[in-house]
């Protein structure tokens, strides 16, 4: 038997003013089932052609919006990626992708789709051969590279020259950034935060006003420069900090008294002028710089739209404003900000939520409540003001609801295989109508559609093999509700006939609509549309 299966989540478009409550985030997921090479996504970037690049522990993945293409080292191909352990990705101003690996820098040419190793030597005849910690750029689009055990390198794009800066304890390097004034900031593992504004002629430890080294026993994973002489740092033990370079004052931005351990921060990314997203071992924190509001996003095994994992390693905002998230165990999560105006309602175990995923019908009652019929979870009542769901007050109602219609304070409920129900929303009294040959019975228990006309008639579409629809007369009295069933005829108050009905083969009506007063339209397989008109 044909049956529509709407494999989608109910999406309601919010037309109200901005809400003061926490914003809802709905993440899409890409992983092994989408042909991602491996689930640990450690760095992300986008090239100027729109391709998204993801490094996993099993190769470099390029995504075109539909498919992944995987690049790995191939011993028989000298133009393949030379090393599979990638630590940093960066596109230079010429559109070539710089790939920092455990074996130095490899450059991907999008025109030839080949990889070549950066082999140029610095002023002291040194090539980059050690693991790359991070690749970044300055205001002149020159490339800065922090290299484990070798120090810091500067590649001048215009001159095509490499300059080496030897720094102490290079084996402890953990991060690098260039601020708005082109000062270089270096983060160490267990040594602190250092900076230079004269190309390493002077290399200084940053200390607070009180002369304190903030990161003596900490590892700095991310340094993010902001305007107004501000730096943000993310570290293993220090969480997220804001540092005023001029006053040397430091502010902890993610205090969490409920946690016994500090927040482990791996990455910081500016989503817009006022919002930072912070990648941590506990999920993502969003931080509003203007209001100082914090929102915590985490993995919920009962929520299909939550993050896939709490160990977040990489963040990236693409050219369209979408946010890409790489985690250690969960692959890729994607948040399409361009569609953030839609609010989703779907089942979440343990929370007040919709009971089913397969939404079939909507119906609004006199009080503004929304009744939602699903094919896998029965009937739901939703209050748009409180945004809360209530269980259906009708005991024994079948879980597969196909049709709803409101008649003043009476809700008519059509089900698949279990007939028709009427529910008085004020008295909670109900009646159940089933297939039969006597008066007040249906000619089929499979109800697919209903339509209450402006004249008060109720049309019901069924799967009965001899008809397209059942049409009925409703006689409301204090004693009972009676139905008179006649094939292709409707009786209402005074008898009226329906004309213009062509010969109909055995089909069922999935939709019935009143397009103008007294004119009913429903689809037929043999005709694009057809209509019934009262006379």
What would you say this structure looks like, in words?
The chain has a four-stranded antiparallel sheet with strand order 2-29-28-27, with no helix packed on it. It has a four-stranded antiparallel sheet with strand order 3-4-5-6, with no helix packed on it. Strands 7-8-9-10 form a four-stranded antiparallel sheet, with no helix packed on it. It contains no helices and 50 strands. Residues 1-20, 466-506 and 526-535 have low confidence and may be disordered. With 535 residues, it is an all-beta fold.
Task: For the largest sheet, list the strands in their spatial order.
Answer: 2-29-28-27
Largest sheet: 4 strands, antiparallel
Shape: elongated
What is the tally of beta strands? 50
CA-based gyration radius = 32 Å
- Mean pLDDT figure: 84
Instruction: List segments where confidence is low: pLDDT < 50 over at least 5 consecutive residues.
Output: 1-20, 466-506, 526-535
Q: Determine the fraction of residues in helical runs and give it as a percent range.
A: under 10%
- Number of contiguous helices: 0
Please indicate the percent range of residues in DSSP E strands (runs of 2 or more).
over 45%
Question: Distance N terminus to C terminus?
Answer: 35 Å
Structural class: mainly beta
């Amino acid at each position: 038997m044909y049956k529509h299966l709407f494999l989608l989540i109910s999406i309601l478009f919010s037309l109200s003013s901005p809400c003061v409550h926490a914003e809802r985030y709905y993440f899409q997921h890409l992983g092994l089932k989408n042909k991602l090479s491996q689930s640990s996504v450690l760095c992300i970037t986008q090239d100027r052609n729109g391709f998204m690049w993801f490094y996993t522990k099993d190769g470099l993945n390029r995504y075109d919006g539909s498919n992944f293409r995987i690049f790995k080292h191939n011993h028989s191909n000298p133009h393949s990626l030379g090393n599979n352990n990638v630590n940093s990705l960066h596109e230079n101003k010429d559109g070539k992708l710089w790939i920092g690996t455990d074996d130095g820098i490899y450059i991907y040419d999008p025109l030839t789709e080949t990889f070549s190793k950066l082999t140029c030597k610095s002023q002291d005849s040194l090539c980059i051969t050690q693991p790359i910690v991070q690749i970044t750029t300055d205001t002149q689009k020159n490339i800065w590279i922090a290299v484990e055990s070798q120090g810091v390198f500067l590649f001048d794009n215009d001159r095509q020259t490499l300059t080496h800066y030897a720094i102490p304890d290079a084996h402890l390097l953990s991060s690098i950034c260039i601020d708005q004034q082109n000062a270089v900031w270096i983060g160490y593992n267990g040594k602190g935060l250092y900076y230079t504004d004269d190309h390493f002629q002077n290399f200084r430890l940053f200390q607070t006003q009180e002369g304190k080294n903030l990161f003596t026993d900490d590892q700095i994973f991310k340094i993010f420069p902001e305007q107004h002489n501000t730096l943000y740092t993310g570290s293993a033990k220090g969480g997220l900090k804001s540092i005023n370079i001029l006053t040397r004052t430091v502010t902890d931005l993610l205090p969490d008294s409920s946690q016994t351990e500090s927040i482990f921060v791996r990455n910081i990314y500016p989503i817009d002028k006022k919002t930072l997203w912070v990648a941590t071992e506990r999920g993502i924190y969003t931080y509003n710089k203007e209001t100082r509001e914090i929102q915590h996003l985490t993995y919920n095994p009962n929520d299909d739209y939550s993050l896939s994992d709490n160990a977040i390693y990489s963040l990236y905002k693409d050219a369209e404003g979408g946010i890409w998230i790489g985690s250690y165990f969960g692959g890729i999560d994607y948040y399409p900000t361009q569609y953030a105006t839609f609010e989703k309602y779907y089942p979440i175990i343990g929370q007040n939520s919709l009971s089913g995923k397969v939404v079939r019908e909507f119906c609004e009652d006199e009080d503004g409540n929304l009744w939602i019929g699903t094919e896998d979870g029965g009937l739901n009542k939703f209050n748009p003001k409180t945004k809360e769901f209530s269980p259906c007050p009708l005991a024994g109602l079948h879980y597969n609801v196909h049709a709803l219609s409101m008649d003043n304070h009476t809700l008519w409920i059509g089900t698949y295989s279990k007939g028709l129900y009427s529910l008085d929303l004020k008295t909670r009294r109900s009646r159940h109508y089933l297939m039969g040959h006597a008066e007040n019975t249906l000619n089929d228990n499979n109800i697919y559609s209903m339509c209450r006309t402006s004249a008060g008639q109720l049309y019901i579409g069924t799967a009965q093999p001899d008809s397209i629809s059942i049409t009925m007369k409703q006689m409301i009295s204090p004693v009972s509700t009676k139905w008179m069933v006649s094939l292709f005829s409707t009786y209402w108050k005074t008898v009226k006939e329906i004309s213009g009905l062509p010969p109909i083969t055995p089909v069922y009506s999935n939709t019935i609509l009143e397009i103008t007063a007294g004119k009913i339209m429903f689809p037929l397989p043999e005709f694009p549309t057809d209509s019934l008109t009262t006379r």
